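Inverse folding, one chain.
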């Protein structure tokens, strides 16, 4: 008899387990983390996330003002603004954290990493889904802005200071303003932890386009120089002298198509 797979969903982890995972995951993503006490007392990203876990629990129970007030206090202490309505998965890490803004309808999957100055913002005043969704394993560089109800696919990377307003496929890297897909997962450097922190190695599509234009101009100038050299040494069929002027005679110059 063929066994039937158990499709019963696993129960959601408790609040204490979530907080423990939030602290533990820091050691895999920040080499400056020395011990658990260090992380618990000195990491504003962890403090903001702890406050958000509590505020979100209040929000889901309909206690909206206490949730907002707790979020406000957290922002005052950590400089990280997370709306209590935002849904955040497991092992979420905000490195440094100052200036991070996460909107009400934002959704964040598991094992996501944000750096300081990141905004997950909206582009409309209408109610409903208006903030981004980051799927599992996404990494967002410092200062990046992800705007609107778009989805950033699993294990995607957003370069520092990018502005992303369109969907990002799984495993792709996005840089620039507006954000452009420039590198697939197979072309990235991945560490044992599966996280690429070498933001300075991300390609620059605008710089590459300018470099191609400069190379093309150099080739055109080289061809013009060759044509000038050839015309300067051509013998005029009319006067027998070195000449490249049409007015010299009716016959064309030998070796020069004019």
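Residues assigned per position:
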């Amino acid at each position: 008899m063929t066994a039937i797979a158990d499709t019963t969903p696993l129960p959601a982890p408790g609040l204490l387990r979530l907080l423990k995972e939030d602290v533990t995951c820091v050691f895999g993503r920040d080499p400056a983390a020395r011990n658990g006490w260090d992380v618990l007392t000195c990491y504003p990203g962890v403090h903001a996330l702890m406050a958000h876990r509590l505020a979100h629990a209040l929000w889901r129970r309909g206690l909206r003002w206490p949730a907002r007030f707790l979020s406000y206090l957290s922002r005052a202490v950590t400089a990280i603004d997370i709306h209590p309505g935002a849904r955040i998965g497991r092992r979420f890490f905000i490195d440094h954290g100052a200036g991070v803004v996460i909107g009400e309808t934002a959704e964040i999957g598991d094992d996501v990493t944000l750096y300081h100055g990141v905004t997950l913002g909206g582009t409309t005043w209408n109610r409903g889904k208006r903030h981004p969704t980051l799927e599992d394993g996404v990494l967002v560089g410092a200062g990046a802005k992800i705007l609107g109800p778009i989805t950033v696919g699993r294990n995607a990377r957003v370069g520092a200071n990018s502005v992303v307003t369109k969907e990002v496929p799984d495993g792709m890297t996005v840089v620039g303003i507006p954000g452009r897909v420039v590198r697939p997962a197979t072309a990235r450097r991945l560490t044992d932890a599966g996280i690429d922190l070498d933001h300075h190695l991300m390609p620059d599509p605008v710089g590459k386009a300018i470099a191609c234009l400069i190379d093309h101009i150099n080739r055109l100038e080289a061809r013009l120089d060759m044509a000038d050299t050839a015309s300067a040494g051509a013998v005029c069929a009319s006067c027998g002298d070195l000449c490249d002027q049409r007015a010299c005679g009716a016959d064309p110059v030998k070796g020069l198509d004019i």
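Helices lie at 15-24, 36-42, 44-60, 64-78, 205-232. Confidence is low (pLDDT under 50) at residues 250-258.
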